[in-house]
Amino acid sequence: MAERVEAARKLFAGPVTFLKSAPSLQFLPDPVANEVAFAGRSNVGKSSLLNALTGRNALARTSNTPGRTQELNFFDVGDPEGEAFPAFRLVDMPGYGFAKAPKDVVRKWKFLVNDYLRGRTVLKRALVLVDSRHGLKDVDREVMEMLDKAAVSYRLVLTKADKIKPTELAKVSDATAAEARKHVAAHPEILTTSSETGLGIAELRAAVVEAIG
Ligand SMILES: Nc1nc2c(ncn2[C@@H]2O[C@H](COP(=O)(O)OP(=O)(O)OP(=O)(O)O)[C@@H](O)[C@H]2O)c(=O)[nH]1
Ligand SMILES: [Mg+2]
Hints:
Layout: H1 2-12, E1 16-22, E2 35-40, H2 46-54, E3 72-77, E4 88-92, H3 103-119, E5 123-131, H4 138-150, E6 154-159, H5 166-180, E7 191-192, H6 201-212
Parallel strand pairs: 2-4, 2-5, 5-6, 6-7
Antiparallel strand pairs: 1-3, 3-4
Helix pairs in contact: 1-6
The chain binds guanosine-5'-triphosphate and magnesium ion.
Domain EngB-type G: 32-213
Organism: Alterirhizorhabdus solaris
Keywords: Cell cycle, Cell division, GTP-binding, Magnesium, Metal-binding, Nucleotide-binding, Septation
């Protein structure tokens, strides 16, 4: 475990650059590197977690206003010692399930995300982020079913762990794990993170590196 964490730290210490935004499938980058995608309800902390993983504060745009990102954002991550750049890609997905989302936006999200998830052979894993204060919601369950059907393996990641008491956190984590076990494509173990304190970030890096192989 410690070895994997160290290897992952090195890989993530390499160059990281924003590649492009894809508002629709025709704008997807060529599938030249394995990808790990960040999914989750709006405001759950996807962009913040991507920044924490790469150690770059302002790489992915974070915001207090939910639903700003409606595109797939691709980031190249390199290996400082390797020849190949990118070594892999991180994909920041638009958030789902915010209250004021207009219907056409929701429909667009479903088409874009569903098509991306089903058709992308380089997509090795999705990380489904869940706010640890709220736990899984029905929209998350719908996305989990979408991932089950698309046969994309995924891992549930609790975010903003700094915002709740450890006893509450343990309860939410147990409940989330119990649900994960009912889904064929879900990893049974839940990762707990905070972009604010750095909790779980090293472990999440290791999980990404394991996923990209
Ligand atoms: N306390 C705390 N706040 C966080 C954490 N992660 C994110 N936030 C805050 O939560 C808000 C939303 O974060 P984002 O990273 O923009 O969320 P997102 O999931 O990318 O949101 P969308 O792009 O709208 O889907 C911001 O105000 C962040 O500063 C965390 O670990 N702890
Ligand atoms: Mg975002």
